[in-house]
Amino acid sequence: MAKITGGEVKYGRTLKTGDFENKRVDVALSFTVDDGEDHAPILQAAAKEAHDKAHAMLGIKQVPSETVKLLEEPKALEAALKSKPGPKPKHDPLAKVELTPEGEDLGFDEDAEASQPEISDAALSTAMNRKVAVLKDKHQGAAPKLIKELINTFVEPPKKAHDIPQKLRGEFLKKLEALT
What we know:
Shape: rod-shaped
Strand order of the largest sheet: 1-2
Distance between the termini: 89 Å
Helix content: 40-55%
Number of strands: 2
């Protein structure tokens, strides 16, 4: 087994301070190990010291050691989350909400055009193509003409299906489905 008697730990960090500005710090620490001493804890301590010195020089806040332990050990993190309740909100968003008595009319009409979902041009096109496929068996080449006549009842010719206003598209799709 190899015997380590000393060494050097180097740590470098660059911090962006502006659009075209950076601050760079390089820390190099030397260490020695006495005969018969384990090198691992000394190496860990030197690495941590280099890291902490570089961050201090850059003004980076140190993370508390208990937080580091929680991040390294998932079971400890889970236990800490269960034992500590989260912060209480400073402001309760529902504190000033007034509830209306049941049965009172609030003026909301779920059938109003604003509450109807928007029907896209692609959805209209898909519905018309499917209907043409269904009507082809019965009407053969006349199926597209039937759909065109239906479109003309909603918009002035030579306008097309994409010109149908949003508020009329739901009704158009119902009548399209009813075509036989």
